Amino acid sequence: MREYNLKPPAIEAADLQWRDGIPESRQFGDVYFSRDNGLEETRYVFLQQNELPERFRALEDNDVFVVAETGFGTGLNFLATWQAWRENRPHNHAILHFVSAERFPIAPEDLARALELWPELKPLADELLSSYPPLFRGTHRLVLDGGRVRLTLFFGDVVDAWSTLTFQADAWFLDGFAPACNPDMWLDEGIRLIRRHSKAGTTIATFTAVGRIRRALQGQGFAMRKAPGFGRKRDMIVGHLPPEEAEPAQARTSGPVAIIGAGLAGSLLANNLAQRGIEVVLIDAAQKAGAGASGNLQGASYVKLGVDFNAQTELALTALNFAYQAYEPFRGRFWHPTGLLQLAWNEQESDRQTRFLDRNHYPETLLYPVNASTATDLTGVPCPFGGLWFPRSGWLSPQTICQRLIDHPRIHQRLGVEVRRLTPCNGKWHIASDGGPDTIVESLVIAAGHLTPQLIPLQSSFRFKAIRGQVTHLPEGLLKAPRAVICGEKYLNPMAGGTAVTGATFDLHNAAPHPTEQSNQENLDKLRTMLPDAFNDHPEPSGTFEGRVGFRCTTHDYQPVAGPVKDMEGRKLDGIYLFTGLGSKGISYAPLLAEYLADRLLGHPEAIPGPLQKLLDPGRMNRAKTKDNRRNTELSSNEAVK
Hints:
The protein is α/β, with parallel strands linked by helices. Helix content is 26%, strand content 25%. It folds into three domains: 16-245, Rossmann fold; 257-291 and 399-463 and 557-621, FAD/NAD(P)-binding domain (3-Layer(bba) Sandwich), CATH 3.50.50; 340-391 and 465-555, D-Amino Acid Oxidase, subunit A, domain 2 (D-Amino Acid Oxidase, Chain A, domain 2), CATH 3.30.9.10. It is built from 16 helices and 31 strands.
């Protein structure tokens, strides 16, 4: 086998050779599917032996059916399962979730060629290819078929996948190359982890009949038997996990769910839950969605990736890539993927980008370096420096997309309602407000931005901070209109409706709620320093420009917060979650975190792996105890803590 030494986060693509139009792996010396009829083999070995069509038809409203697979390969098993789901799924809000791992993912052009062999799958294959992720390590979530199908695709070792992902499978496809060709995939540790992700009644099927594999599965509690194999293969093995061997099923919410805060985070979460069939009560003190920090005319999909590829960088990259997919349905209306230039605007940033490029290897579909001349061509603005070009990034109209997202029959809007108190009682949460009787729900999410700390029902102090940010609206004619977003010490967005937005200030100790001439002048001065040749002459004083102020909610470590509320002892409070602390990166982070929180609320496979979830843990926001702040924060069902 070839040796690989790619810098992170890139992952080695499958090395294919084609024989009679069939792909083979040079790494493993084996074919990806039967030469006789790969699609029929999949239908027999995995769909029929796991009784998927019958089980799909029996699903009730809001059920999730989880299929897990040990090797994604060409995606043929996934597409065949998706096709069977379309043919057999009940007419309710049940969701198919497919979880798969792949150590050597197939490059998009090879994947397209392989799937051309199956014309009947073309509509599904085209949708898969349009969302297929760039080849970088880690977890990728694809939302397909209008949200009725979700694919969690892990690029990396299968043992790493099953060690870090959170899910419970209803059916297993033990695929991948034959044990003799790829023994690592069939290690005892991998089979032990398969058992950990199974529950009562989980079924399992594999094309192999190797006795060692059957005994290993039996050793983990699976009841296994031989079945006739496909085509020329005499035998295969199938089985199930008896109830007495199973782990308890994951807890899940059936709704309704209350969300406090109708900014971009709360609106995305509300829409995500509603699309999955859950009733949502959306509460906000403002009269319309997106009135707070999400109310700017424009916002950029931007993250600053670390020089070293660590967990924080992986979370930022995963979120950014998911955001591109999440906003794609709104292209040309609220989402404008113009490309984004991260300008090397001073010596320090230039040095940082040089080290970044030296230590990492990113697919060019995500980012690549450009010189000043190319940067000028791409943006349409004279750029004195080069930088990093993100071809799929762009800008969003956050307030208008918020209002579009919450326009859904399962989202019950309570706008103009200020929440006064959150009280647990008899396993439910009572939300008292100035707008009538209490709202009573089993689960609620606080997504109230910088106002979140005053709503958390614990007598504690939290490491959140509000940072004032003022943007400046630049009229048409003031500068050479950029074609793409430019980010440096300030950002500059393309013109929209005769206005371009620049900013924002970073005012940690300024609580002024209205725009000031001083902040406008700061934005203009720093933008002119960054892009001196972008401006036409402008005699107007800065006070003639309009602007807007928003307060970002940030955390002590500048990482977002998404997950269950925890007390000072680290214990979870049942049914209450936080979704905040996104700072200036909400446009990039919010879609993935909304997907992840919806997964947690509903007990679905989770979009974010365990190591990255630790970065989001709300428990880290509790300040250390002091003599004046020691109390028992355990909630009883009859106690109002705030």
